[in-house]
């Protein structure tokens, strides 16, 4: 069965849908659409890869502005978690960007901030 979503004669999406009667889940493009209509990733966690990737990126950006010593480890940790649970290229790119920003902050803390504080 092919489902086409259209509003005002404009077609937005067309994709095949199969329905699993035993668990009452709908499978769309090899991803399960559960009862409450949240798309889950391959591991079954609801958008955990996207959440970790966005947190990593936010920590990376905030760490560039204030407190890199606090936000660098958070950005690195969430970046690694985001890379492991990423189910799309977009999630992987967000997590990788946060991870890179975290490492840049870590290098800044180790080679600039700590020697400056020790010498003064």
The largest pleated sheet is described as:
4 strands, antiparallel
What share of residues is helical? 55-70%
Q: Whole-number radius of gyration?
A: 21 Å
Strand order in the largest sheet:
1-2-3-4
Basic shape? elongated
Beta-strand proportion:
15-25%
Count of domains? 2
Written description of the protein model:
This protein is an alpha+beta fold and 120 residues long. It folds into 2 domains: 32 residues, no CATH class; 72 residues. The chain is 56% helix and 20% strand. The protein has a 4-stranded antiparallel sheet, with no helix packed on it. Helix 1 runs parallel beside helix 3. The N and C termini lie far apart (71 Å).
Topology:
Elements: E1 2-7, E2 10-20, E3 25-28, E4 31-33, H1 48-65, H2 68-85, H3 89-119
Antiparallel strand pairs: 1-2, 2-3, 3-4
Helix pairs in contact: 1-2, 1-3, 2-3
Could you list some keywords that capture this structure?
120 residues; alpha+beta; 4-stranded antiparallel beta sheet; 3 helices; 4 strands; 56% helix; elongated
Task: Give me a quick take on this structure.
With 120 residues, the protein is α+β, with helices and mostly antiparallel strands. It is 56% helix and 20% strand.
């Amino acid at each position: 069965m092919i489902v086409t979503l259209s509003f005002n004669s404009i077609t937005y999406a067309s994709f095949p849908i199969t329905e699993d009667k035993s668990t009452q889940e709908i499978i769309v493009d090899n991803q399960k659409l559960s009862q409450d209509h949240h798309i889950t990733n391959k591991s079954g966690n609801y958008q955990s890869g996207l959440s970790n990737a966005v947190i990593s990126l936010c920590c990376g950006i905030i760490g560039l502005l204030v407190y890199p010593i606090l936000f660098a480890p958070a950005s690195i940790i969430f970046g690694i978690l985001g890379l492991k649970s990423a189910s799309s290229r977009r999630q992987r790119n967000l997590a990788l960007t946060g991870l890179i920003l975290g490492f840049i902050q870590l290098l800044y803390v180790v080679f600039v901030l700590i020697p400056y504080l020790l010498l003064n």
